[in-house]
Amino acid sequence: MDSKKGKGLHIVLIEDDESHALLTVRDFEEQRPDDQITLFKTGEEALQYLNREGKYADDPGWNRPQVILLDLRLPMMDGMEVLKAIKNSPQLYSIYIIILTTSQREEDIISAHKELVDVYINKPLKISEFTSLMQSIGYV
Fold this sequence. Notes:
Elements: E1 2-4, E2 10-14, H1 18-31, E3 36-40, H2 43-51, E4 67-70, H3 79-87, E5 96-101, H4 106-114, E6 119-122, H5 127-136
Parallel strand pairs: 2-3, 2-4, 4-5, 5-6
Antiparallel strand pairs: 1-3
């Protein structure tokens, strides 16, 4: 887990591709410096964090995110499984989830919407699009 602290939104980024993660974090740091980005490279670790399990059980710095940016192509537990786990959790289901992926496959888009994803965006994410989206739902 890597984290950048700020006063704006707390965003969990679940992305295993280091270059994609670095670009996303860099863009957020430049365009939305008050946001806090917490990065996880696996769905398993992100779910432990979100559920406050394992090493995150007593984490005094734990902060419930308002938004999750989720890649679909993750090792071991893929993004769709992570999405299902979050949306099936009474404690987590209300967190706004944005699928951020290179996949344009119709079946992925349909599956994500069946699992109640809030937004499905193809990479690369333009921070201006993200800001507009967050404004439209009242986060900024």
